[in-house]
Amino acid sequence: MIRQSLKYRKTITVIGFLCLLLLVYLLLILKRDINDKVTSHQRLSKKEERIFESEPKREKHVKLAKMELDKNIHSTIKELQDAKARIEHLEKKIAILEGRIPEKYPDVKYLGYKERKRILVTGGAGFVGSHLVDVLMTQGHEVIVVDNFFTGRKRNVEHWFGHRNFEMIHHDIVNPLYIEADEIYHLASPASPPHYMQNPVKTIKTNTVGTINMLGLARRVGAKILIASTSEVYGDPMVHPQPESYWGHVNPIGPRACYDEGKRVAETLAYSYAKQENVSVRVARIFNTYGPRMHVSDGRVVSNFIMQALQNLTITVYGNGKQTRSFCYVSDLVDGLLSLMASSYTLPVNLGNPVEHTIEEFAMIIKNLVPGCRSTVATGAAVEDDPQRRRPDIAVAEANLRWSPKVTLKDGLQRTIDYFREELSRTTFYNNQTYMDINVKPHN
Ligand SMILES: O=c1ccn([C@@H]2O[C@H](COP(=O)(O)OP(=O)(O)O[C@H]3OC[C@@H](O)[C@H](O)[C@H]3O)[C@@H](O)[C@H]2O)c(=O)[nH]1
Fold first, then answer.
1. Ligand 1 close to Cβ of residue 358 (< 6 A)
2. Class of the CATH-defined domain 101-432
C-alpha cells in the first residue's frame, strides 16, 4: 500500500515537471509572437532601425523629426513648382488677351461729369451703329453698345475694347434690358433686304417688341430716344421726291412688309410713348446709306456691285435697272443723327442724299471707279415689290437741323471701294467662298 502510494507520488511529480516545461515553452512562443506584431506595426526603415540600434534615444527622435521635416519640405517644394507652372500658364493667357486690347485708342476728348452722357446704341456693332459709336466716343461720352451680332460684328468696334468709356453688351433687345442711360440711339434691326427677308418674323419682333423694350427703358430712366426708321416706310412711292408728310404706299403682306411695316409700327410706338408716357422721341427716316464696314456679304446694291467690280465678276442689276436710288455716305448720315438727337424737333426727319441715279447708271459709275475693271453689266429678274423711285426731300432737315450731306458720291464710293479692296486682300475670303455663298444664320 505504502509502496503503491510512493509510486503514484513519483508519477505525479514527473507529470508536474513535464507540465512546467510545457508552460515555459508556450510562454516563449507567445513572447516571440508579440515581438513580431510590434515590429510589423512600427515598421521602421532599415536606416531607422540602424539609428535605433546605434544612437541614444533622444538623438534618435531628433533624427526622425528631421527626416519627417525633409519629407514635408520636399512636398511643399513640389506644390510651389506646380503653382509656378500654373501661374506661368495664366500669364501667357493674359498676354494673349492683352494683345487683343488696342495699345493706343483713337483720341478722345475729356468731358466733365456735367457734360458727359451715358449713351446707349442698340445695333452699335453694325455698319451705321459703329460709325456713330466712333463719333460719340471721340466726343468723350460713355458709350454702351448693345448688339446680338445677327448682322453686327465685334470687329467694327474692337478698337474701343478695354477703353474706360466703352462697354459692350451681347444682348438681343427682343428681351428687356435694365440699364441707365441719358440718350438711346435705337438702330438695332437687319437693314439689308436679303437679310431682313430671310427671317421676317425676327425682323418684325426686333422692330416691334424690341422697340417697345427700348421705349420702355427710355420711359423708366427718363432718356431721350432716337428711333432709326427708314425710307422704306414710303414703300413704292406715288410722290417724288418723298417729303415726311407723305404717308407712303406699302404692301402690308409683301416680302418687304416685315421691315416696312415693322418700321411703321416702330414710328407709331414712338409717338404713342411720347403722347401717353411723355417720352422724348426723335425719328430719323434713313435713306440708302453706304460706306466702309458694310459687310462683304451685306447683299445691298453698293457692296454687291463693288465686290463684283473688284473681282471682275458680272455686275448683276435686278430688273431693267431703271429704278432709282439716292445714296448717302455714312459720315453724313451720322452727322444727321447727332444733329437730330441734339435738336428740339420731334417729328420724323428724312436723312439721305438727294442726288438720284438709276441702278443702271450706278453700276457704270462703280465699274468706272475701279481701275482695269473687266466686269460686264447684266440685267436680270426684278425683285418683288422693289420701289421704283426713291429720293429724299430734305427740306425739313435743312431747316430744322441745319443739316445737308457733304460727301460727293464719287468721294464716298472711292473710300468704300478702298475698304472693300482691303477686305479682299486681308483674307482668302472665307476659304474661297464668294460672298454669294455666305448665308447669315437666322435667329428667332
Ligand atoms: O445686286 C443687286 C442688289 C440690289 N439691286 C437693286 O438696287 C436697288 C437698291 O437695293 P438695296 O438692296 O441696296 O436697297 P433698297 O433700296 O432696296 O432697300 C434699302 O432701302 C433703304 C434702307 O433703309 C434699307 O437699308 C434698305 O432696305 C434695288 O432696286 C435693288 O433691286 C441690284 O440691282 N443688284
1. no
2. alpha beta
